[in-house]
């Protein structure tokens, strides 16, 4: 009993989170999809990230509840495509939600193969948010190899879309394995059960502050995020339109031969 009590006190925050997530999963069928978590105070731009786990989403209802942006899971590892990506991508954009797509990185798979899968899956266009690489899986043996393959994915995807990707990770994994190696990439930071991230504001642009929020239009829990800045700042991150060819001056146009 004493050992159990000591373990609970030491890990109670995480254990309580696991219990809440298990309860949310168990009671999901009893939810209506109208439950609502209050927006985090102090931020004006709120967003979510989703995958097939959320099931069918009513994006019109989501958009009416001040969700300004969404990152949608597209792919994972070397072969897995999220089965709901195409529908979520289409319906979220139709509802006016600013969209981006993410790839869940498997550190034991080749970075180029994973980059190719993402590029074949995601039709990013001008006006969309940059691609995201989710790096948090700890099933690797050599951190240097993991970093090399992460760098390969980021480099290839940037070359493919012409925009620098965003790097996503949780606070402890980032500090332990990624900090100092990918500082040139915008950081989307997951950090829960804290009043603010334990990292300088200059280091991150998006904060995933909860993975157990409720948003009307989604039946069950969803990740909740805030953007550090206003909506115009978020719009400035979007993929730019391709440059248009300059018009020739009238004197340089081909004249009709008489």
SSE blueprint and pairings:
Blueprint (H helix, E strand, L loop, with lengths): L1 H25 L19 E5 L8 H5 L3 E10 L3 E2 L3 H10 L3 E7 L6 H11 L10 E3 L8 H19 L4 E5 H8 L8 E4 L15 E8 L8 E6 L3 H6 L22
Parallel strand pairs: 1-2, 2-4, 4-5, 5-6, 6-7, 7-8
Antiparallel strand pairs: 1-9, 2-3, 8-9
Number of helices: 7
Q: What class, by secondary structure content?
A: alpha/beta
Rg, nearest Å: 21 Å
Q: What fraction of residues sit in β-strands?
A: 15-25%
Mean of residue pLDDT? 89
**Quaternary assembly:** single chain
Low-confidence stretches: 252-258
State the helical fraction.
25-40%
Describe the global form.
Answer: globular
Sheet with most strands: strand arrangement: 1-2-4-5-6-7-8-9
Characterize the biggest β-sheet. Answer: 8 strands, mixed, barrel
Protein name: Lysozyme
Catalytic activity: Hydrolysis of (1->4)-beta-linkages between N-acetylmuramic acid and N-acetyl-D-glucosamine residues in a peptidoglycan and between N-acetyl-D-glucosamine residues in chitodextrins
Enzyme class: hydrolase
Keywords: Glycosidase, Hydrolase
